[in-house]
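Project standup — Tuesday

K.O.: blocked on the structure for the chain from last sprint. Re-posting the sequence here as requested.
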Amino acid sequence: MESEKGSAYLGNNALVNYLFEVVFGISFQQVLGYVFYPLAWLIGIPASEAMQAGSIMATKLVTNEFVAMIDMSKMVKEGALSAHTTGVLSVFLVSFANFSSIGMIAGAVKALSPEKGAVVSRYGLKLVYGATLVSLLSAVIAGIML
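H.V.: unblocked you, prediction finished:
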């Protein structure tokens, strides 16, 4: 069951990337890499690796941490990321700051209490925003320590 969910995430990710490649000539992950480049640089990732790191950070936000870890492990095997960047990204990725996790939390709360579930759903974007800020702060602290 879990491998089917992972395959669906990877399949959807590949489909969106392919469509962006066909229409715009650049993958969706590369576009998100440009968007997240400043954040990656601000948390201490070298500018030469910030584009790849930003792409991984965005992949985590849009899909989940497992898909982002798979992408990061490919880059590490290719030698595209330094040990410092790998450590900082690893800390950033180990959280539930993504849309699918917030959806699961809202669904679980709604099953227990429909009125409280509606409250959680209403604040879903704020939860993602707050969780992402916590992930960024944790990555900054890890970057200082590494």
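K.O.: great, moving the ticket to review. Helices lie at 2-24, 28-42, 47-62, 65-78, 83-93, 99-112, 114-122, 124-145. The two ends are 37 Å apart (CA to CA).
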